[in-house]
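Blinded run. Sample ID left blank on purpose so nobody reads anything into the name before looking at the predicted structure. Input follows.
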Amino acid sequence: MEKNNVPQDQSNLTKNNVKELLYATDENGNYTTTLSTGWEPKTIALSNSIDEINERISDAKQQVLNGEASPIVYFMEVNKMDLTILSSYVGFWKWRVKRHFKPSVFAKLNDKILKKYADTFEVSIDELKNSITE
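Blinded prediction complete.
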């Protein structure tokens, strides 16, 4: 794309007075960098992704409140993680992390295990246990 054709549409970046660095060609056909405030299709895709993430967080919170899942599920969604990523951060096998998703198993976890999750989610053990029910 030529430098003078780089999109400057309204986007989430515009609201925060931020610009995205892009590569484009100059008048001589050489690659150079330029700034863009946004591009409508990219803005729509990003907005849809954010909406989906917020919906997943809301669903996870409701599962915790209904006693169907442990708070680990909620914090995993808030931190935009999946089972594989969370497993690698806490250093447990995926099957073990998935087992900790069960409220009955979560209630029996010792502080050493809870600390690994709390540190990963950057919350205290108390927040991990209680912040969703408040």
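Unblinding after everyone has recorded impressions. The first strand starts at residue 20 and ends at 25.
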